[in-house]
Amino acid sequence: MSNGSFALKSVTPILRIFDETKARAFYVDYLGFQIDWEHQFEENLPLYMQISLGTCTLHLSEHHGDCCPGAAVRIEAENLAALHAELEAKDYKYARPGIEATPWDTRELSVTDPFGNRLIFFEAA
C-alpha cells in the first residue's frame, strides 16, 4: 500500500508480560513460537524479546510503559484445524481452545495468555 511518498509494511504488536517463565511456557512451549532475541539493559531489569512463528512476529515486554495488558491480536493462519490439533496434543492446563465459525465468514481459534492478552488465530471459512 502506498500513497506515492511512503509505503506501510508489516505490523509487530507489543504484548505486555509479567513473568518470563509463564511467557516462555505459553508462547514457546505451548504455541510453538521461537525466541529470536532478548534484551535487558541490566540483570534484574525488565525483559524485552522478539518471538516468531512462520512470518508472524510478536514482541513481548515486561516494561510497564510499552503497552497495557489485555490486548487482542488477530493472526491470520493457514490450516486452523492443524493448529488446533497441535494445541490439543500439548499438555498445557490453562487453555483448551476450540474452533468457532463466525458470522463474518471466518473460523477462529482464540487463546488468552497468562497476562490477559488474547490471540485470535483465524482463516477464511
UniProtKB/TrEMBL annotation:
Ranges in a coiled coil: none
Gene Ontology BP annotations: response to antibiotic
Molecular-function GO term, any one: dioxygenase activity
Domain of life: Bacteria
Ranges of residues in domain VOC: 7-124
CDD domains reported in the protein's UniProt record: BLMA_like
Alphabetically ordered keywords of this record: Antibiotic resistance, Dioxygenase, Oxidoreductase
Keyword Metal-binding set for record: no
Entries under PROSITE patterns matching the protein: VOC
Record InterPro entries: Bleomycin-R, Glyas_Bleomycin-R_OHBP_Dase, VOC_core
SUPFAM superfamilies registered for this protein in UniProt: Glyoxalase/Bleomycin resistance protein/Dihydroxybiphenyl dioxygenase
Gene3D superfamilies: 2,3-Dihydroxybiphenyl 1,2-Dioxygenase, domain 1
Pfam families listed in its UniProt record: Glyoxalase_7 (PF19581)
Family indicated by similarity: Belongs to the bleomycin resistance protein family.
Name the UniProt record assigns to this protein: Bleomycin resistance protein
